[in-house]
Write a structure and sequence with these properties.
With 319 residues, the protein is of the alpha/beta class. The chain is built from 13 helices and nine strands. It has helices at 26-33, 37-47, 64-78, 83-92, 98-105, 116-128, 132-168, 174-194, 217-228, 242-252, 270-275, 295-298, 307-318, and strands at residues 11-13, 21-23, 53-54, 60-61, 205-209, 234-237, 256-260, 283-287, 302-303. The chain has a five-stranded parallel β-sheet, with helices on one face. It has a two-stranded antiparallel ribbon with strand order 1-2. A two-stranded antiparallel ribbon has the order 3-4. The chain starts with 10 loop residues before the first strand and ends with a helix.
Length: 319
Amino acid sequence: MPNPERDEAPEPLAADGAPAAIVWNVGSVAERLGISPSTLRTWERRYGVGPTHRTAGGHRRYTETDIERVTLIKALIARGAPPMEAARVAQTTAVDDLGTALVDASGDDHGDDLEHHQIVDGIIAASRDYEPDRIRSLIAGALRRDGVIGAWTGVIAPALINIGREWSEGRLGIEAEHLTSEVVVGELRAHTRAAGRLDSNGPTIVLASAESDLHSMPLIALEAALADAGRACHVLGAQFPAKALASMTANLRPTIVFVWASLPRTEDDEMWQVVTSMVPPTTAILGGPGWPDRPDARGQATVSVSLESTVARITSLVG
């Protein structure tokens, strides 16, 4: 079935005696700028920044000037400006000054002038407004500027904690939390892919979440942080069965096995028995608050308290 947003080509626009110009439908503009059509419609509905031309058939279309204004909004939001303020600037900038404003807003120092708390506040506001493109831009900028460990510690974890708190207090819907989490996962995976070809012939590193534990984001963050260090790993994901981990470890004999547990585990838990019984050449590293607090048993595995300490421990073990 044809997509009404994308099946129409850009249309020539001609005034009497003037050369033809091109106008664009919302789907074409969205694809051109890497912005979702729903975001473009939101900016038009809330802030009045949208297509200004009407075709003979009454369809609204973006002119090049309209697109420049939308692009300026996108660039300003990426630098941490609230959408309403970005829209105000875009609306009030003279046509002849739009090019200069775009250059200024899209400079190579993207995000360098933002404090961590400003980025966190921007992510929370974008979550509240259901603006995934804005969340994506802020997180991507933090990852580029600070690396995975810096972005996770200074931006991503604080933002997720605050969003979770606002949800528990009834000030944000669960959909805002899920939206943000999905964007974070996507940007972390994109960061890992951007690292290029990693050393997969070196020591084997396995990452998994304990059985019945739904959390996989800590694994994805660790994968991305290890990619920054040039290390490839095997991510087994959430709810990995203890028996399968024991079998895999016996066959593969990995150098590192990292297991995350958010939910409380008891000392008779099967995963606890598996990770605390691993022997050289395998070192088990435990992450998350769910593991039993028994130092004598934990002596058989390395305990990790942060992303930074986990990466440092793995790096020291694999050389």
